[in-house]
Design goal:
By secondary structure, the protein is an alpha+beta fold. It is about 60% helix and about 15% strand. Helix 2 (about 35-45) runs antiparallel to helix 4 (about 55-80), helix 6 packs parallel to helix 8 (about 165-250) and helix 8 (about 165-250) runs antiparallel to helix 9 (about 255-285). The radius of gyration is 43 Å and the shape is elongated.
C-alpha cells in the first residue's frame, strides 16, 4: 500500500499514498504543539509553587515553544502546496514536544511529592495529550507509539527510582493499562485509515483515468469533426463544378439518351451534395461552431420563397404545397433567417419524400403573444410513421421506409433540425398515424416588431434574365478554382454579361 505507484490529486497536486499520509498527518497535528504551550502557560500562571521558580518554568515554556513553532511553520507553509514527504525535523519536533512535556510532568511531581491538586492536573493534561497524539498520529504507528511512550517515560522512571508502594505501584499500573488501551486503539485507527486511503486512492485514480479517457474521447471527437469539416469543404468544391458543368451540358443540343445521362448526373450530384452539406452541418453543430445570426426579416415572405423553391419537387410526386399563416401583414421576426429556412426546407423535403399524390401544408403561427413564441408545423398526407419509431425519429442516422422505396436520405436531416431548434432555445416534436399522414412541429422564442406597410406600394421580383438587363457595368469574378471558373464563365456568357476572371486577390486589385 505504501509503494506509491498509484497517484491521484489532492489540492491540485498529485500525491502518492505515502505523501497523502504525510499530508493528513501534517493537517491533523501541525497545530497540536499550541496545546502544550497553552496548557503549560496556564499551569504556571495558576500555580504559585511553579511561579516561584520562574527560571525553570520559563525554560520549559521556551523548550516546548520552539518545536511547536517549527511544526506551525510546516503547517502554514507546506500544507497549501504539499507534494512531498515530511522532513525528519518535523518528526523530531513531535518527539521533542512529548519529551519536554514528560519532563515538565516529572518536575511538577517533584514539586508536589504528595501528589495533590497540581500533580493531578498535570497528569490529566498528559493523559489527554497522549490520547490526542494516538489519534492524530495513528497513520504512522511507530510515530504514535514512540510519542505516547515519551509522554509517560519520565514519570514512570521517577516512580521506579523513587519507589513508594502506596503511590508508585497503582500509578505505574494505571499508566500501563492506559497506554495498552491507547496503543490498541492506535492499531485499529491505523487499519481503518489505510483501508479508507486505499479505497480513496482507487476511486481517485479511477476518476483521473475516466477524466483522461473523456478528454481523449473529446479530442478524438474534435479531430473527427475537424476532419469532416475539412473534407466536406474539399468535396463540395469539385462537386459544385460537376453540378455546374452538368447543368451547362444540359443546355446544349443533346439527344434523348444523352439528356437522360445528364439528368442522372445532376440528380446523383445533388444527392451527394445534400449528403455532404448534412454531414458538414452535423459536424459543426456537434463541435459547437455554429453561431446564430439574429436579424429582422419577413417570416411569411421567407416561407413563400421556400415553398416556391420546393414546388417543382412536390409536383413531380403529385403533391400540392399550401401555406397557412396567421401572422399579421408587416410583422417582422427577429431570428436566424437562414437556420429557420433550413428547418422548414428539411421538414418540407421529408414530407415530399414520404407523400405521393397528396397535400403538404406549412402552418405558421405566433403563439403566446406575451412570450413571443413562433410555431411552425408541416402536415402531410403521406405514409405516416409507426408509433415505435416516433421516439427515435430525431436521432442521428435514423431512417424510415415508405411503401414505394427503400431507405431514403442519410438519417441526418431531422437530427440536424433537433440540434438547431435546441440551439435556438426551442423544442421540436412529431405525431403521426400510419397511412394517414404525419405532423412535424417546432416552437422557438422570437422577438417581433410590427412594420407599417406603405399604401398602394407593391413589391416586385425580377428573374435572373430580367435582372441581367439592368446590369451594364462589367463583372469581375475572383475565383481560384479552374472548374468553378469554367462554370461561372459559361453562365455569365449565357446571360450575355461582360465579365473578366481573376485567380487571386492581387489580380483582382490589378484588374479593378
Amino acid at each position: 500500500m505504501s509503494s506509491g505507484k498509484s497517484e491521484y490529486k489532492n489540492n491540485q497536486t498529485i500525491l502518492t499514498p505515502e505523501q497523502q499520509c504525510h499530508f493528513d498527518l501534517l493537517s491533523q497535528s501541525g497545530l497540536s504543539g499550541n496545546y502544550f504551550v497553552t496548557a503549560m502557560i496556564l499551569l504556571v500562571a495558576i500555580e504559585p509553587s511553579l511561579r516561584s521558580r520562574p527560571i525553570m518554568a520559563g525554560t520549559f515554556i521556551v523548550l516546548i515553544l520552539v518545536p511547536s513553532l517549527i511544526r506551525m511553520y510546516y503547517y502554514r507553509k507546506l500544507l497549501p502546496e504539499f507534494a512531498f514527504r515530511l522532513p525528519k525535523l518535523y518528526f523530531s519536533c513531535v518527539w521533542f514536544n512529548a519529551l519536554i512535556w514528560g519532563l515538565f510532568n516529572l518536575w511538577v511531581m517533584q514539586q508536589d511529592p504528595e501528589f495533590t491538586r497540581l500533580s493531578a492536573m498535570v497528569f490529566a493534561a498528559t493523559s489527554a495529550a497522549t490520547a490526542g497524539a494516538i489519534i492524530t498520529l495513528s497513520p504512522l504507528p511507530w510515530l504514535s507509539r514512540t510519542t505516547a511512550t515519551l509522554f509517560f517515560a519520565p514519570t514512570i522512571l521517577n516512580l521506579i527510582f523513587n519507589w513508594r508502594p502506596e503511590l508508585s505501584l497503582p500509578f505505574i499500573g494505571l499508566i500501563i493499562i492506559y497506554l495498552t488501551f491507547l496503543l490498541n486503539l492506535a492499531n485499529r485507527l491505523y487499519s481503518d485509515y489505510w483501508t479508507s486511503l486505499s479505497r480513496e486512492v482507487q476511486l481517485r485514480t479511477r476518476s483521473i483515468e475516466l477524466e483522461e479517457a473523456r478528454n481523449s474521447a473529446l479530442a478524438a471527437s474534435n479531430a473527427k469533426g475537424e476532419f469532416l469539416t475539412h473534407m466536406s469543404h474539399e468535396i463540395r468544391t469539385p462537386l459544385n463544378g460537376v453540378i455546374g458543368m452538368a447543368d451547362i451540358l444540359g443546355r446544349t443540343s443533346l439527344d434523348e439518351q444523352q439528356r437522360q445521362y445528364v439528368h442522372t448526373i445532376q440528380n446523383s450530384s445533388e444527392l451527394l451534395l445534400n449528403l455532404v452539406n448534412d454531414v458538414l452541418d452535423f459536424s459543426q453543430i456537434n463541435s459547437g461552431k455554429v453561431e446564430l445570426d439574429y436579424r429582422e426579416f419577413d417570416m411569411e415572405q421567407m416561407a413563400i420563397e421556400t415553398l416556391d423553391m420546393l414546388r417543382i419537387m412536390a409536383e413531380q410526386r403529385g403533391n400540392k404545397l399550401k401555406l397557412q399563416s396567421t401572422l399579421p401583414p408587416g410583422l417582422l421576426i427577429n431570428s436566424d433567417r437562414l437556420r429557420l429556412q433550413q428547418l422548414i426546407t428539411n421538414l418540407l423535403t421529408n414530407a415530399i419524400k414520404f407523400t405521393r399524390d397528396g397535400s403538404i401544408k406549412l402552418i405558421i403561427d405566433l403563439i403566446d403573444p406575451g412570450l413571443e413564441k413562433l410555431r411552425i408545423e408541416v402536415k402531410d398526407t403521406g405514409v405516416g410513421i409507426p408509433l415505435s419509431s416516433l421516439s427515435t425519429i430525431f436521432e442521428a442516422f435514423e431512417q424510415l421506409k415508405d411503401s414505394q422505396r427503400s431507405l431514403r436520405g442519410n438519417g441526418l436531416g431531422l437530427a440536424i433540425c433537433r440540434k438547431i431548434v435546441e440551439l435556438m432555445g426551442g423544442e421540436i416534436g412529431a405525431s403521426s398515424i400510419v397511412k394517414e399522414g404525419s405532423s412535424f412541429w417546432l416552437e422557438i422564442p422570437v422577438h417581433t416588431r410590427q412594420c407599417e406597410l406603405p399604401d398602394g406600394k407593391e413589391t416586385s421580383t425580377l428573374t435572373a434574365e430580367q435582372g441581367s438587363s439592368h446590369i451594364h457595368n462589367p463583372i469581375l469574378v475572383v475565383e481560384d478554382n479552374k472548374v468553378n471558373q469554367l462554370v461561372i464563365d459559361a453562365f455569365l456568357d449565357k446571360l450575355e454579361l461582360v465579365h473578366s476572371l481573376a485567380e487571386s486577390g492581387a489580380q483582382a486589385l490589378t484588374a479593378w
